[in-house]
Amino acid sequence: MKSSRLNQCTCLTYAQLVIKHFENPKLSSWNNVTRTYSTTTNGDLEDKTIMSFKQMRCSGIKPVELTYASLFKSCASLLALDLGRQIHVDCCKHGFDSDVYVRNTMIHFYGSCKKIIDARQVFDEMSYTSVVSWNTIISACFRVSWFYESVEYFMKMGGVGIEPDGTTMVVMLSVCAELGNLTLGKCVHALIIEKGLELSCELGTSLVNMYAKCGDLKWASLVFERMPKCNVWTWSAMILGLAQHGFARHAIALFKKMKDSSVQPNHVTFLGVICACSHGGYVEDGYRFFEEMKRVYGIKPRLTHYGAMVDVLGRAGHLIEAYNFIVNMPIKPDATVWRTLLGACNVHNATDFDGVGEKVQEKLLELEPRWSGNLVMVANKYAEVCKWEDAARLRKSMRFKRLKKMAGESCIEIKGSTFRLLSGYDSQATCVGIYLLLDGLSLNMKINNS
């Protein structure tokens, strides 16, 4: 049997058995099976990639570049860091670590395991890089929220003469969305137009998501309406964008239009419409969509959906109903869910007749006893109701445990540059002028109001 026929086998186990019966098993046959296992999204089959490699070595056959590339892909899918490191050493021993394809899969492996320092070292040591190499390291940085490093690599990419492709643009648009950097996002969009890249579903969805998260709903809608074809992710990105910026009715109307277009909603779509109900104060609609997700579309609610429903109830002031909803959840609520309700209790403090806030505080401190944000929220709530001794006790325990409140932070973008502003005045900050301007505006408002 020729190695090319092995690729056509529908039963991978049978393919492996055939190889075992070869009198002189060929390297290409082993590589075909190893590659087939590694490209199949199944944990058991990815494990078999490693087993095939071990059997191959026991048979006295030396691996080649393709072997290691397949192994690194499998280790990335399995998040098998220790095993991947061993394979990395073995790869270096055989002198295949200089191959660009092997290096790319190696970067992907370390990036998947969130070992970004190792991924960067592998990339920086490459004598030759392809567009795939740059896309892989940019994606690896994005995966661990090293957004500015992703931008840095993107800038360097053009400097060494590597032309970005559609994959590069998709990742960079995601980076811009997370940073909220609209100026950079528009630059990436301009590059897409300049290079004449096709507005595929993936690229178009990334554009809609970027504009929506950066608050430019006009451009998000324009891109959405001009897309030749939209999938469920495109619709979901637009619905979620409208919901997060307070356009509740628009988001719900778009959801109805999506269903009328015969596009099946997914878990992200329902998260969007439930968030819209939260911002719009539509409690009954929130319950209706939550039940529709389960009963009509058979989508099992995730923790984020339960959290969104708690937000719907909490924002509307239904505190005891929100508390009971959490208690009766089929999955264990995390600290974020409890914190959502505590925030609602702080807003609706005057209507908290059943003392829901006290119960939530206990649950939150039980789950995260050392997270300073929780302690500060609870201490502030005590102070609001004049429980000074309890507030002082909590703050004293924070000092004793050496816990510090994370400083509040916001960003402002001026002429393409992003400035970080931390709460509290810092005379050494680079934006002293901004603080002085704010002080002047504050003084001016006080004078005008007096």
Automatic annotation (TrEMBL):
GO terms for molecular function: RNA binding. PPR repeats lie at residues 130-164, 231-265. GO terms for biological process: RNA modification. Transmembrane segments: none annotated. NCBIfam families: PPR. InterPro entries: E_motif (IPR046848), PPR_At4g14850-like_plant (IPR046960), PPR_rpt (IPR002885), TPR-like_helical_dom_sf (IPR011990). It comes from the Eukaryota. This is Pentatricopeptide repeat-containing protein. Keywords: Repeat. PANTHER family: PENTATRICOPEPTIDE REPEAT-CONTAINING PROTEIN. Gene3D superfamilies: Tetratricopeptide repeat domain. The lineage of its organism: Eukaryota, Viridiplantae, Streptophyta, Embryophyta, Tracheophyta. The keyword Repeat applies. It comes from Tagetes erecta (African marigold).
